[in-house]
Amino acid sequence: MSSLSRIFCVWRRNLDVYLVTWKVNFIPPLLEPMFYLLAFGAGLGGFVKTVPFRGGEVSYTAYIAPGMVGIAMMFQGFFECTYGSYIRMFYQKTFDAIIATPVSLDEVITGELLWGATKAFIHAAIMCAVIRAFGYMEFPDLLALPFVAFVGGLFFAGIAMSYTSIAPSIDSFNYPIFLLITPMSLFGGTYFPIEGLPGWARPIAEFMPLTHLTEIARSIAFGYWDRGVWTRLGVFLLLAVGSAWAGVRLMRRKLIV
Questions:
Q1: What is the residue extent of each domain of the chain?
Q2: Cα(214)–Cα(222) distance, rounded to whole angstroms?
Q3: DSSP codes joined into one string, 110-171
Q4: What is the pLDDT of residues 143-160, one digit of tens each?
Q5: What is the DSSP-derived secondary structure letter of residue 188?
Q6: Where is pLDDT greater, at 245 or 40?
Q7: Predicted confidence band at 45 (pLDDT cuts at 50, 70, 90)?
């Protein structure tokens, strides 16, 4: 059996567990965009009619729709490879059981990372279907968003795994969530253009990875496939591979003593 086949077995194991509880896993990405679109569209959207975007204007609800997909990419990749991987590693002893087979530790971690990216893909696909049902985003452009979510999910999964490698306890995951993930979800160009931020805050927002990931998703959702989008997507792909590599290396250092 090749290394790719063994990585696939780890990935497939997580998929099988996911499918057993698919009803519970299916509900959040199905209802979340409904709640947000209704709340922001019928609520805040009543006060903020349009938002400037690429030299024109779009409705506020249409503007935040890709932002919600961007947040889902980040949350799924990060949470799966922090809480999910940590529980499988220390509480369920899943890693120990798999490593007892011919599967290596590097292959287990790689499978975990790919599963985190896959969860981002699945949730983005479900959210895109719901958002389209509300009349936002158009075919065939929205079909590309789940694949963008896979790249973004892998990037955040790698960051998450790197932190998991140094986390002293499961409670310590509160630090990156409240100091990194939550600020990015609020100020990463998801709910409003970063041009509206104070001068000192805008460079910080532009430094956030989610800002650029959301910009990619929003541009694609509105049918913009220019050179800037492809460049950002290519950079994110390189960053995703780099963060995944770092996650594997750091987890190996943690577990092999």
A1: 3-255
A2: 12
A3: HHHHHHHHHHHHHHHHHHHHHHHHTT-S-TTGGGGHHHHHHHHHHHHHHHHHHHHTT-SSGG
A4: 899 999 999 999 999 999
A5: S
A6: 245
A7: low
